[in-house]
Amino acid sequence: MERFQLKPTIYFGPDALAALDALAGKRVMVITDAFLSSSGLLDRVTARLTGCTVERFTEVVPDPSLALVARGARALADFRPEAVVAFGGGSPMDCAKAMVEFGKKLETGLAPLFYAVPTTAGTGSEVTSFAVLTDTERGVKYPLVDDALLPDAAVLDASLLAGVPPAVTADTGMDVLTHAAEAYVAKQASPFSDALAEQAFSLAYEHLKPAYETAGESRAKENMLLASCMAGMAFNAAGLGLCHGLAHSLGGRYHVPHGRLNALLLPHVIQFNAADAEAARRYARLAGRCGLAQNPRALAAALNRLRAALKLPDRLSACGVEAGQLRGDMDALAEAALADLCTPTNPRSVSVLDVKAILKELV
What we know:
Blueprint: E1 9-12, E2 27-33, H1 34-39, H2 41-46, E3 53-60, H3 66-79, E4 83-88, H4 90-106, E5 113-118, E6 130-135, E7 140-145, E8 153-156, H5 166-185, H6 191-213, H7 219-238, H8 242-254, H9 258-273, H10 277-289, H11 296-309, H12 323-339, H13 352-361
């Protein structure tokens, strides 16, 4: 038996923030980072919280740590909100999910409504049961996977993306493409996840470069936000694969932005997975949806061209990772990638030697 879950409720289109009007009069904790807290964007959110008692948790940082989540869970349990609003990119989303879950364990009976409001088009975290946390002592990223982490509502307001820097648009956009591509070939893919993954990939492939090149609000950024959400729904149902397993392994150790690592890794992982006939057929179909020659090599080459057009690096050395350092860390990186919760749904079985071979291509 297979299953496809439809949660959360998704609000999108002009003035999607109006969905927050439903929280009027409640005790609300807003979880975000210091930059967004001081940027003026957060004021647009709090303006919708009419008559609410609002507590702001603004300590979120990139790659949220276990210690940060523990601190936040205590703050949430002490405040006892009736609703939580996660506001920001993947890090505030993931931190908020974990805070809510662990806050419930600290304060029995706590069951806040959970609204997620993304300000980047990348992680799709607003519709997934995933949260990625970092053990800073061990230098490892841990994906948590539990349906209890799913928000109740996702609010997609494309106007919030107007001021996103081009470099962030590039990083997060490549994450969207990776989510869609990995979900499409994952072992748990279904006709429902396939429909979302295909549409997400073709939308992102068409609109990422225009979104990167356009300042302010644009139709391209709106489409990237929709693609990000659809890709999140797809991989939440189908799983991911080796590309994310490796990105978590490398990101936990070297602190390179997640989307940037996916941009480096995805063409190599496509070539590796294409040895599986069914995966090769699916990659060919994705290539065809994007107007490319229908084969995995054409898809990998197109992604390399797109990465170059977005001015993203083509080697780990360009991300500040020295070749000697990478070679010395190879065993630990391979072990972490194989242990990652995203790797088991990769369409092709993976060995330590396979992981090392891919890493060597990135030096």
